[in-house]
Amino acid sequence: MSETGISLDTVLDGVAAVLLVLGALMSTVAGIGLFRFPDQLSRMHAGTKPQVLGLLLVLMALAFAGRAWVWVPVLLLAWVSQMLTAPVSAHLVGRAGYRTKHLRPEYLYVDELANVVARQDDAGRPAASVVDQRNVPQEDPSDIHGRD
């Protein structure tokens, strides 16, 4: 115990608690963003960006609370796997949503994918002829709120 009466365990518990609360807040913000944003692409952004940082903060809290070096590689592996899979899965879901017209074009500032998709068939291969090429995807009129 130090002269002020605060032990190292108390400080580490305090740091772990602060990190845990901040990580929970980041994950909560990600969850709220999934409901509040208007279209699929915005919701994916809200779901992946703060969630990865929230997970990092929670894992750091676990490292401080565990007080053992043996947990650090395991926690680091969990965070790195999340860093690798979250952007890839968001990209694939976004591209699939774009191809199935689950987006709201008025929210797109630049639509770089429209011409690429229009020149491909349903399997993703280049269209055989100009006749096979489709028009740029339009908004689905039955999807009033832009949600699935």
What's the arrangement of secondary structure elements?
Layout: H1 8-36, H2 40-66, H3 71-99, H4 114-118
Helix pairs in contact: 1-2, 2-3
Task: Kindly describe this structure.
The protein is 61% helix and 0% strand. Helix 1 runs antiparallel to helix 2 and helix 2 packs antiparallel against helix 3. The longest helix has 29 residues.
Which properties best describe this structure?
single chain, 61% helix, mainly alpha, 148 residues
- The end-to-end distance, rounded to whole angstroms, is 57 Å
- Counted beta strands: 0
- Name the average pLDDT: 80
Number of helices: 4
The structural class is mainly alpha
**How would a textbook summarize the main sheet?**
none
Order of SSEs: HHHH
Shape: elongated
**What value does the Rg take, in angstroms?**
22 Å
**How much beta, percentage-wise?**
under 5%
The stretches of 5 or more residues where confidence is low (pLDDT under 50) are: none
* Percent helix range: 55-70%
What can be said about this structure in brief?
The protein is mostly helical and 148 residues long. The chain has helices at residues 8-36, 40-66, 71-99, 114-118.
